Amino acid sequence: MTEEIIETSLTVKNKPKQKHKKPKNFAVILHNDNYTPMDFVVWVLRTMFNRTEELAERITQEIHTKGLGVAGVYHFEIAEQKAMEVSIAAKQNEFPLQVSVEEVGA
């Protein structure tokens, strides 16, 4: 009986280890429009993405000049949740702010 236990434990130890893939990251992207005030975008970045005033203003300026900007990078579920929260806040304030989620490094 002892031999069986030793054999079983050796078999378990010699099994190949499974490699786990790191979860992919996704960027939450805010898009420029001609109606949403920059102050609202700064507010979104500060309250929903925990950005400093300075960084929020920099990202807002990038959105304004380049047409879009990355609000943050997260695992998929968190990125989707943040995008939904931004969309809800924009609709509640009657702004057409568009937000998307894109895989990083794809």
Name the assembly state.
single chain
Number of strands: 3
Q: Name the average pLDDT.
A: 89
Q: Which descriptor suits the 3D outline?
A: elongated
Largest sheet: 3 strands, antiparallel
Q: Could you tell me the radius of gyration in angstroms?
A: 23 Å
Strand arrangement in the largest pleated sheet = 2-1-3
Number of helical segments with 4 or more residues: 4
Low-confidence sequence ranges: none
What percent strand? 15-25%
Percent of residues in helices comes to: 40-55%
Helix-and-strand structural type: alpha+beta
Helix-strand sequence: HEHHEHE
Kindly report how far apart the N and C termini lie. Answer: 53 Å
Can you characterise this structure?
With 106 residues, this protein is an alpha+beta fold. It is 52% helix and 20% strand. It contains 4 helices and 3 strands, in the order αβααβαβ. The protein has helices at residues 2-13, 38-49, 53-66, 76-92; strands at residues 25-31, 68-75, 98-103. Strands 2-1-3 form a 3-stranded antiparallel β-sheet. Helix 2 packs across helix 3 (53-66). It starts with a helix and ends with a strand. The mean pLDDT is 89.
